Amino acid sequence: MPRHTLAAAAAALALTLPAPALADTLIDNVDGITIGENGEVVRFTGLVFDDEGRVTQLLARKDKRPARPDYLLDGKGRVLLPGMIDAHVHVMGIGFAALTLDLSETTSLEDALETIRAFAEENPGRPWILGRGWNQEKWGLGRFPTAAELDAVVSDRPVWLDRADNHASWGNSLAIAQAGVTAKTADPAGGRIIRDAGGRPQGVFVDKASELVAKFVPAPRAKERDLAFAEAQKALIARGVTAVADMGTSPADWGTFRRAGDTGRLRVRIMSYADSIETLELMAGAGPGPWLYGDRLRMGGVKIYLDGALGSRGAALKAPYADEPGTRGLSFLTPAQLRNIMSRAAMEGFQTAVHAIGDAANAEVLGAIEELAETYDGDRRWRIEHAQIIDPADLAQFGKHGVIASVQPLHQTSDRLMAEARLGPGRLAGAYPWRSILEAGGRLAFGSDAPVEPADPFAGMAAAVSRTDADGEPFGGWFPQQAVSRETALAGFTKDAAFAGFAEGRFGTLAVGERADFIFVDRDPLMATLDELRAVRVLEVWIGGVRVDAGAEGGAKRAE
């Protein structure tokens, strides 16, 4: 066997083996920052962790160092932070997005069509052209794109492309025909087929209607899933993300995570929320599952979709859309159905995380929590995912039961102009109301909704503290009274994100007894300018006391 082939085989084998255990390690001479028990900033200059990858000491400059650590590493004065936690991602979506057509950077319909045409020509063997990331608002199109426009660039194979928010899909005529969707096909509950004047499908399917075509897309094989998961881990680790909450884990996703755990390829910690109550009961059993693979995987809750998104006008609103008065959005569940699912989960001790974007949907979830809290007391940590548009009259409900608003700061900067158009100027007082939720007594956890937005916690922190986008717009911030402090933003991507997933005490801060998950970065995020904060560069990532590369399979390295 040629030497280079033998070396490659050995490297591949090494990636399938568990990382070697570390003895007591001291990383000294660091500019360390973490969030303390009461939300305060804690600074330190040395970190000690044991051979199980748990923190044993945080050392101030004046503190005596261990006399003979097994390993001594010089941090060279660099900034050391807890590993970032993204409180809302779609792990497999990140991976598949990296392997399929990406339209997120297209700036016009013409640009998107040329990108699709080129991708199809470069991939003649793919039976379907799959991708995501289109956004008719970003294109300035003023309408949804059509199947006929897709047909003009790809007509020999089905094309199926998810919108940037994953709440609508765009297909060509061949995809629609293979699914058997015609003018006679009724809109499903919680979904809408965009039609022409004659009632024929025009090419875009909103929310539940997407399933009419999506179920005909060939399912990825286990090998393809494993490859997508490897890509997802690479993307997350490169951004300094060491733990995530996976929102909507399917049985196939769970199997992928378990295969990675069984073969030593699971690096990032995953707090898993099942895609349905049936998946939850099948995968976890009669109660939250145990933490597996050294606190790397647990299924403890269920993701529940209540409405759609603003971009596709699927978010459920109390009043009609300002730019389409004929609709108030889509509700996927009746009030009774929502309460039934939440009750079934709570009865077995599972956590519920309800997707709610519009003010009507958020009011419905808050009302359900109010009713269920009378029966299911104790530490429930009711979660609302996104919580984008809240009627100011409903804000107090967040504090009454300590509701966690799991929000994505980059959504606010991406959606600002669209939100103004969808709601009109008179209904924005409760739009992305982060500080108001805190002042009402609610809690925040920060995430990205990747692949909808990049899993970039530092860009998210910049948006959270400024309410401005990467270009600094709008000047002074959009409703700047809803911005949060830098300490709150850092906590939202670390300590509070862990708390939101019942992971406190395991990871999320650099405290004695917790996992030694940390990153080295090139600047202090609490002192940097906004531009510098957005440009933070991750230098090293450590998970459980092991340095992890963002390369293939997230390979581990022993401390040296």
Task: Explain what you see.
- It is a single chain.
- By secondary structure, the protein is α/β, with parallel strands linked by helices.
- It has 19 helices and 23 strands.
- Helix 14 (409-423) packs across helix 16.
- The longest helix has 17 residues, at 222-238.
- The protein is globular, with a radius of gyration of 24 Å.
Which structural traits does this protein have?
single chain, 560 residues, alpha/beta, nine-stranded mixed β-sheet, eight-stranded parallel β-sheet, 23 strands, 31% helix, globular, disordered N terminus, disordered C terminus
**Rg calculated over all Cα atoms:** 24 Å
Number of helices: 19
Rounded to the nearest angstrom, the distance between the terminal CA atoms is: 31 Å
General shape: globular
- State the oligomer: single chain
pLDDT averaged over residues: 93
**Uncertain runs:** 1-22, 552-560
Roughly how much helix do the residues carry, as a percent range?
Answer: 25-40%
Overall number of strands:
23
- Summing up helix and strand content along with how strands pair, one would put the structural category as alpha/beta
How big a fraction of the residues is strand?
15-25%
Largest sheet: 9 strands, mixed
